[in-house]
From TrEMBL:
<dbReference type="InterPro" id="IPR050801">
    <property type="entry name" value="Ca-Dep_Lectins_ImmuneDev"/>
</dbReference>
<feature type="signal peptide">
    <location>
        <begin position="1"/>
        <end position="21"/>
    </location>
</feature>
<keyword id="KW-1015">Disulfide bond</keyword>
<keyword id="KW-0732">Signal</keyword>
<protein>
    <recommendedName>
        <fullName>C-type lectin domain-containing protein</fullName>
    </recommendedName>
</protein>
<feature type="domain" description="C-type lectin">
    <location>
        <begin position="157"/>
        <end position="269"/>
    </location>
</feature>
<dbReference type="InterPro" id="IPR001304">
    <property type="entry name" value="C-type_lectin-like"/>
</dbReference>
<dbReference type="InterPro" id="IPR018378">
    <property type="entry name" value="C-type_lectin_CS"/>
</dbReference>
<dbReference type="Pfam" id="PF00059">
    <property type="entry name" value="Lectin_C"/>
</dbReference>
<dbReference type="InterPro" id="IPR016187">
    <property type="entry name" value="CTDL_fold"/>
</dbReference>
<dbReference type="InterPro" id="IPR016186">
    <property type="entry name" value="C-type_lectin-like/link_sf"/>
</dbReference>
<dbReference type="InterPro" id="IPR035914">
    <property type="entry name" value="Sperma_CUB_dom_sf"/>
</dbReference>
Amino acid sequence: MVNILAVLCVFTLTFVGSIYANVVATRDCGGYMFVDDLVVIDGPFNENCIFKFETQEDRVLVFSLIDGSLKEAEQYFSIHDGLDGDSPILLVGNQKLPEVSRKDLPASVYSTQSTASIRFKKTASNLFQLKIQKAINCPFNLGSASQCGRVVDEISCYCATFVKRNQSDQTMFCVDKGMKLIAFESQAEEGLIQSTWDIIDNYWTSLTDTRREGTWVWESTWKFPSSYLHWYGGEPNNANNEDCMVYGGSWKSAWNDWPCSNLSYAICEVQP
Ligand SMILES: *[C@@H]1O[C@H](CO)[C@@H](O)[C@H](O)[C@H]1NC(C)=O
Ligand SMILES: *[C@@H]1O[C@H](CO)[C@@H](O)[C@H](O)[C@H]1NC(C)=O
């Protein structure tokens, strides 16, 4: 199955010339696909075509249109939460996004489990491309004094906790929720997080040099922040043996090293 998909990917990438990785385009009527990352199916579709999708057991599926309105396209098909004919229908209008999600994300429909299906009910005259991605099931929040949202894109999930803890307690708070203490992969990701949750107060991150003094590593991903740094002027200075990176407060959006035993808020994240 994996080999067939890989061959299809290479073929359709050349054929469709798409910017997406792992694209499977098909003009066949229906089929079953395992969604490792993302799959794109394009029409024209005929009525009664049924496509079935499955992803990793602890993940969900998100459907969106590459171009155009998913709500308008709903007249041509129904998206079902599961594989059976009587699985409940998922509609754009019924989707409840977690509390602080971006308002400008593409209109999408989420399954509540690892399988979903699309049933075409009438032949679409114009061609459209449906994107099906593996996504994280993002909770509304993580209990009191917390907020969650699709803050960066439609597939990942971010949560803020407004209970102050030291850095290792925040690491474990995230792990207990099936998440990781934040690691900024890019300036864009950092910007979106900092514009969602104000930086009046301090937030712990997973960047630390506890393992080797002076060597900073994102402990959540075991990656060096080599391609992207945002230290405040004169930081990190290791005053009072400061081994954990915090942002917010006096340093606003920039990074400072602080004693890991200090208490701060934190952001947890999870990527599919
Ligand atoms: C963090 O706080 C916990 C108590 O909540 C404490 O047991 C632990 O030693 C603290 N760790 C650090 C590094 O300060
Ligand atoms: C955090 O650590 C610094 C020392 O680097 C200290 O001056 C400050 O008071 C601490 N803040 C809190 C809230 O513990």
